Each structure stands twice: as C-alpha cells, then as structure tokens.
C-alpha cells in the first residue's frame, strides 16, 4: 500500500493531468490511495466566491462560481472527449449545492461559509481525475472523504476524530481495494457529525494523505510536486537553491512551523507515529531521486535553510497604566489570540510592551484591537517580511537582510529570525 498526493500544480492543465496518469500507470503492482488537491488556483478562486458572498455581493460571487464551473467543464470535456459522460451530472450536483449556499443569507461565521464553498475544489478535481482514469484503463474507486473523515466544527482548521475516522477507513475504504487497486479521495476536507463540510487548514491535503497513510499502515507516502525535491529555500523567491536528498521529520516540522510552504505542519506526526517515510518527488520527472523524510537523517550535511513569510504585521501592545506585562498578562493576551484564531509567528516582550508578528488579516486584526484596546495602546506596522534562517552563516544573513531595516530579531545557535521592513 502506497499513498500518493498530487497538488494543484500537477493538475493545472489537461497535459499535466495526463502526466499524473502516466505516473500512476508506472505502479501497476501496487495498491494506491491517491489524495488529490483542487486544480491549479481553484482554491484561490473559490475563496473569492466566499468573500464576495459574505460581503453580500451575490452577483459577483455567482459570476466567479460560474467561471470556476466553466473551467472544470472544459477540462473534463478535453479529457473525456464528450459531455455525455455521467461525470457531468456529478459536477452539476456539486455546483448546485454551492448555488444553494449562495442563495442563503450569511447568518453564520465567515469560516463556516468558507468551508461549505471552498472545499468544493477537491470534489471537482477528484471526480474529473477519477472519470479520466477509468476511461484510459486505470480502474479506480472514487470516495467522498466527507463520509470518512469525521471532525469537530472548528471550521477552516478542523480537528480529526481519530477513533471514528479509523473505523470509517477500516470499514469503508479498505474493502474497496478488493474491487480496484486504486482509490481516489480528496485532501483538505472532512465533515462534522452534523454532515457540515469542514476544511483542515490551508494546504491541508498533505495532512489528509498522512492520516490515510497512518490508518492504512502504508509502506510510504509520496507528495508529487513541480520541483525535483525538497529545497533549502523557495526557488521562486531565491536563486541558487539546493536540493536536500534526505532530512529528518523534526527538521521538516521546524521548516513548516516557520512558514515554509513545503509540507503542511500537521503532516509529519501521523507518519512519525508509525515510522512511515515521506517522499517528495517531481511529477515532471518521476525518475529524479527526490527527497526522503524519515526519523533519522544527517543534519550536519544540511545547507542553510531559508524561509521567507511576506505580508506580515508587527503588532505592539503597551500597557495604558504602565503595569508590567507579567505572566498573567501574557496569558490573557495568548487566550485572546487563541480565541480569535490568530497565530503568532514571532514575539517579544519588555516591561510594559508586548510585540508580535502575525499574518496580515485585516478582519482578525480589527477584532484583536477591539478586544484589547481597553487595556493597551496598540500600534502596528504593515507590509513586513519575516525571514528565518536555520544553520545560518552571518555573511548569508546580512546578504538576505540587505536594504532592509531590522525591526525585531531573535537568535539561537541554530536559528535566526528577523522581521524586516524595506
């Protein structure tokens, strides 16, 4: 049993979907559980649908949804050569459900409606890929993962009910391999016990695949990407990146924690718990060695690892009455951030100040200010960048920070973080 995950980049065109099929065809003797993300930038487009719906701009939301629908229908027709296939009825059902949501008044939280609309991208892509695979002889079974992954109702970052979900995998998914050697499921989504759709966090398909790998006792999990393997930095942001042949679970968790977009932060734990290796391979050339992620790896051979998070905000709280910001005050501040689902990327406190770096999210920043303004004077700087370098070298650090002002810095013997302003 192997678990494969294909992301949006591997599905962004008809040609790439055919490449995915060729990769799958090269594993004829394996049982494959394949987790698939939304095609291309579909998630971004559906996020715009959700945002406009919640702002009561229904006509714009409906037009954006129509654009997504037409794109998927065109891709499906190009792959299947006809619109008479039952797939098109399945796609229409998904879009009809989304249209019902757009017909409602937004009386619940934005996160709830986000999950009802945005999670549709994975349903569309998997239905299309499954139908295409079947037409070219890659017999497979399509699964709606919302019938398998049970979660709580923490919308946009739902937590999996492991015991219930394990039973569903054992009872509903494992028997499918007696019919076909390939099962196709969605990443990123699940369902509450009230059958409300949820998402597991942005880029959560890696995590979905890891949950399946754990529960199926898979031999390995492979994430197929458009790069030759795991790099020491994002090649779109930095020149001369270096491929990393092997790396430990712990090191990848650190990279993900600091904001690297390589692997979803929750992915490693389900794999580590059962010592399942994670492979990062290139779908453009499956013969490249890629990267192996496992328990033990030689960190002495690692190059400097660079992570850059853009669009950051420095929020500074100052006590109005000059009271010290002691442990109890910090606890109250943390509780507020936790309740409003705001992640702190970097923090520092003085006698009467507490400063932290967070992602730029205007709605949540506004809520933070409303909640905290009675006790604190609040200021913030926007349009910042958070640079993290592990196994740093001072020369490299200065080069990366050149032409920037350092607003905040934290340093250990391994890692440096700098909050930068141009």
Automatic annotation (TrEMBL):
Keywords: Amino-acid biosynthesis, ATP-binding, Kinase, Nucleotide-binding, Transferase
InterPro entries reported for this sequence: AceGlu_kinase-like_sf (IPR036393), ACT-like_dom_sf (IPR045865), Asp/Glu/Uridylate_kinase (IPR001048), Asp_kin_monofn (IPR005260), Asp_kinase (IPR001341), AsparK_Bifunc_asparK/hSer_DH (IPR042199)
Catalytic activity: L-aspartate + ATP = 4-phospho-L-aspartate + ADP
Documented EC number(s): 2.7.2.4
Gene Ontology MF terms: aspartate kinase activity; ATP binding
Domain Aspartate/glutamate/uridylate kinase: 2-281
Highest taxon, organism lineage: Bacteria
An example Gene Ontology CC term for this record: cytosol
SUPFAM superfamilies tied to this protein: ACT-like, Carbamate kinase-like
Family statement drawn from the similarity comment of this UniProt entry: Belongs to the aspartokinase family.
Protein's recorded name: Aspartokinase
UniProt source species: Chitinophaga varians
């Amino acid at each position: 049993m192997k678990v494969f995950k294909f992301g949006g980049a591997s599905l962004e065109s008809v040609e790439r979907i055919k490449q995915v099929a060729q990769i799958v065809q090269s594993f004829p003797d394996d049982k494959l559980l394949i987790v698939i993300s939304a095609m291309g930038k579909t998630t971004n487009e559906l996020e715009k649908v959700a945002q406009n719906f919640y702002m009561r701009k229904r006509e714009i939301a409906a037009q954006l949804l129509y654009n997504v629908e037409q794109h998927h229908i065109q891709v499906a027709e190009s792959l299947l050569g006809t619109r008479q296939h039952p797939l098109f009825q399945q796609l229409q059902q998904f879009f009809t459900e989304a249209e019902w949501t757009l017909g409602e008044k937004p009386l619940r939280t934005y996160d709830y409606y986000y999950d009802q609309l945005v999670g549709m991208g994975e349903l569309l892509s998997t239905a299309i890929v499954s139908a295409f695979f079947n037409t070219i002889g890659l017999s497979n079974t399509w699964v709606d993962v919302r019938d398998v992954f049970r979660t709580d109702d923490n919308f946009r970052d739902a937590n999996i009910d492991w015991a219930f979900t394990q039973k569903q995998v054992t009872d509903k998914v494992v028997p499918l391999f007696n019919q076909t050697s390939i099962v196709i499921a969605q990443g990123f989504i699940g369902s509450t016990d009230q059958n409300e759709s949820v998402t597991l966090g942005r880029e959560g398909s890696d995590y979905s695949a890891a949950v399946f790998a754990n529960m199926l006792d898979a031999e390995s999990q492979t994430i197929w990407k458009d790069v030759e393997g795991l790099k020491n930095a994002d090649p779109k942001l930095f020149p001369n990146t270096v491929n990393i042949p092997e790396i430990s679970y712990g090191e990848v968790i650190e990279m993900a924690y600091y904001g690297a977009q390589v692997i979803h932060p929750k992915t490693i734990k389900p794999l580590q718990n059962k010592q399942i290796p994670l492979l990062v391979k290139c779908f453009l050339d499956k013969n490249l060695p890629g990267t192996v992620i496992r328990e033990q790896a030689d960190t002495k051979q690692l190059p400097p690892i660079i992570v850059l998070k853009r669009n950051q905000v420095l929020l500074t709280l100052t006590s109005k009455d000059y009271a010290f910001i002691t442990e109890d005050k910090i606890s109250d501040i943390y509780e507020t951030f936790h309740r409003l689902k705001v992640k702190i990327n970097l923090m520092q406190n003085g006698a009467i100040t507490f400063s932290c770096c967070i992602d730029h999210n205007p709605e949540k920043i506004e809520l933070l200010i409303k909640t905290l303004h009675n006790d604190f004077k609040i200021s913030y700087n926007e349009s910042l960048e958070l640079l993290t370098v592990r196994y740093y070298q001072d020369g490299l650090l200065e080069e990366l920070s050149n032409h920037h002002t350092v607003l905040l810095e934290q340093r250990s013997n391994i890692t440096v973080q700098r909050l930068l302003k141009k």
